[in-house]
């Protein structure tokens, strides 16, 4: 089993080490500091021989006057070396965290939509926080032990060999035993570390859901249910941590017992050598101190496997994200400002795996400046259809063209610059109203353009009533605003972009009737001379569309103008009559 694990550990840690190598100068300072610490501690235990033999046994104070000064110098050097080591490794550790976190975040920006469809938010957030910290701890701890502690052991062994090679042999017997213990414990450390990181993701997931859905929890009395969920997730985390603690503690305990036997043997044979005048009191004290000096480094060497395996498991989870394929951007054609002719030719699509096809044999020919309304029952594939145009997903079959060019031949940036989007799930960021309007590439918009878009989307109506106007913070996901206000900001963002192609997915779904009329007027102005794809459940809002298609189970079952579809007395007509009757009753 070890032969299968060790190469994987080496590969992952070797890859992780690339984040340290750019900081060679700081690392060299840390290594020098750790080497100084090891040499100084070796010198400290060596000084115990003259201190004992010349000062305590021979009571020769004149020849030992240098010893206090030597101890002072050693502790000054030890303090300076310790500071250099901790400060340097701490800097490297935080830099590795920053580099990893930014790289994972950048990867999130370029991953395809399908990746996020199959992932829970909690584990992804956990990797950005907890897992990255574990990686940095692994880097600094392993480096410290690999350099300082191993050099300290070497220095201690050197002192021991100098005083008594024969006694050193008894200590040397312990090292293979300790090495075997470390190797066996590494298997358990890696297994439990991975499980702990998974359980942290579950805790984060449950917490994120109750924070986001606190109204639902309160309204439906989900307190006990949510408490049971966090108890299960936290209990799993606690159990895995306790297993890791027990294994790590067992390793330390066994190592200390092994050392205890070694110390007993050393004391036994040292007594015999002292009787035979083969070792002085000072030599024995210095030898014994050097052996004790090794105890803590060896204990840390035993424990480092837990830290190493935890760091490797954390790094592995991060590298899995980094190794995911970015969304394909193989296009080479730069689309300037499109005319807006949109064609779907025999398009088919599914979400992969065992999922059934969502769209089948979709054929659409939408001329520049025209409006296409897409209607039908929920789950018919309407939102999926429009998501294919900006290539949030790629078609499985068929082709989509803009101005005669397949969209796969267009660069993603130029394709998406020509498309404005307003969805029914409004996404706002924890920033000001103005910054949510002029988001991303829209930052270059002038103040007049920003104000015009805000006016057209009726954002100024509520913004001017707020103390800071357009500079008012909207809160996390815009929760400080009403649903209608959030929707107006999203519409204003699309207005400001002024793209030749518009996608309106239930763009007025969160508005009251009065606001909807005003927004619809603004949208009508915006839609002039622009190609627009509109999804609407309220069919009264799309009666004036140039063309309407009815989607049912992923297929176009009807198409035509409003009057033509009503005259056909098919699905559209039944949907229209149903909604018209409901609106009449509510009126």
Description:
The protein is α/β, with parallel strands linked by helices and 587 residues long. The chain has 20 helices and ten strands. Strands 6-7-8-3-9-10 form a six-stranded mixed β-sheet. A four-stranded antiparallel β-sheet has the order 2-1-4-5, with no helix packed on it. It is elongated and about 120 Å long.
**Low-pLDDT windows of residues:** 1-5, 582-587
Taking all Cα atoms into account, the compactness measure Rg is 35 Å
Q: Within the largest sheet, what's the order of strands? A: 6-7-8-3-9-10
Succession of helices and strands? HHHHHHHHHHHEEEHEEHEHHHHEHEEEHH
Overall shape: elongated
Query: Count of helices?
Result: 20
Helix content estimate: 55-70%
For the record, give the distance between the C-alpha atoms at the N and C termini, rounded to a whole number: 73 Å
Task: Output mean pLDDT.
Answer: 81
Total number of strands: 10
Note the beta-strand portion.
5-15%
Biggest β-sheet strands, sense, barrel: 6 strands, mixed
Structural class: alpha/beta
């Amino acid at each position: 089993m070890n032969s299968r694990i060790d190469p994987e550990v080496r590969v992952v840690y070797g890859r992780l080490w690339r984040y340290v190598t750019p900081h060679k100068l700081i690392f060299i300072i840390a290594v020098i500091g750790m080497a100084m610490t090891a040499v100084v501690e070796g010198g400290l235990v060596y000084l115990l021989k003259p201190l004992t033999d010349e000062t305590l046994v021979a009571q020769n104070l004149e020849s030992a006057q240098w010893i206090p000064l030597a101890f002072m110098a050693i502790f000054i050097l030890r303090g300076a070396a310790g500071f250099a080591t901790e400060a340097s490794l701490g800097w490297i550790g935080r830099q590795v965290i920053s580099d990893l976190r930014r790289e994972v975040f950048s990867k999130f920006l370029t991953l395809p939509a399908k990746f996020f469809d199959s992932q829970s938010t909690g584990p992804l957030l956990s990797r950005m926080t907890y897992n990255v910290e574990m990686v940095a701890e692994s880097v600094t701890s392993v480096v410290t032990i690999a350099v300082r502690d191993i050099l300290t052991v070497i220095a201690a062994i050197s002192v021991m060999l100098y005083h008594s090679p024969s006694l050193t042999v008894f200590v040397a017997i312990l090292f293979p035993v300790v090495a075997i213990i470390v190797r066996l414990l590494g298997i358990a450390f890696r297994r439990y570390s991975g499980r702990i990181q998974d359980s942290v993701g579950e805790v984060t997931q449950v917490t994120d859901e109750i924070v986001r859905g606190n109204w639902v929890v309160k309204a439906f009395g989900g307190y006990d249910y949510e408490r049971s969920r966090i108890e299960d997730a936290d209990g799993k985390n606690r159990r895995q941590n306790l297993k890791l603690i027990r294994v790590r503690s067992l390793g330390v305990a066994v190592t200390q017992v092994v050392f205890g036997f070694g110390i007993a043997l050393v004391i036994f044979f040292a007594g015999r050598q002292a009787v035979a005048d083969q070792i002085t009191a000072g030599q024995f004290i210095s030898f014994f101190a050097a052996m004790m000096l090794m105890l803590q480094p060896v204990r840390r060497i035993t424990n480092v496997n837990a830290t190493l395996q935890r760091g490797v498991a954390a790094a592995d989870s991060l590298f899995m994200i980094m190794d995911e394929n970015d969304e394909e951007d193989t296009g080479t054609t730069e689309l300037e400002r499109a005319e807006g002719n949109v064609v779907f030719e025999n398009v088919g699509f599914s979400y992969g795996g065992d999922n059934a096809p969502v769209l089948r044999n979709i054929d659409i020919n939408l001329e520049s400046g025209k409006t296409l309304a897409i209607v039908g029952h929920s789950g018919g594939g309407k939102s999926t259809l429009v998501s294919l145009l900006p290539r949030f997903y790629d078609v499985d079959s068929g082709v989509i063209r803009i101005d005669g060019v397949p969209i796969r031949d267009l660069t993603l940036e130029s394709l998406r610059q020509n498309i404005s989007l307003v969805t029914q799930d409004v996404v706002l960021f924890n920033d000001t109203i103005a910054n949510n309007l002029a988001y991303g590439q829209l930052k270059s918009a002038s103040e007049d353009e920003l104000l015009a878009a805000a006016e057209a989307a009726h954002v100024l109506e509520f913004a001017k009533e707020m103390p800071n106007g357009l500079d008012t913070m909207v809160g996390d996901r815009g929760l400080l605003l009403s649903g209608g206000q959030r929707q107006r900001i999203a519409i204003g963002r699309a207005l400001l972009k002024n793209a030749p192609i518009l996608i309106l997915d239930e763009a007025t779904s969160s508005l009251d009737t009065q606001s909807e009329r005003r927004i619809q007027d603004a949208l009508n102005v915006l839609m002039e001379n622009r190609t627009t794809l509109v999804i609407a459940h309220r069919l009264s809002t799309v009666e004036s569309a140039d063309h309407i298609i009815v989607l049912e189970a992923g297929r176009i079952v009807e198409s035509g103008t409003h009057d033509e579809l009503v005259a056909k007395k098919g699905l559209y007509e039944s949907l229209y009559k149903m909604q018209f009757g409901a609106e009449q009753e509510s009126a």
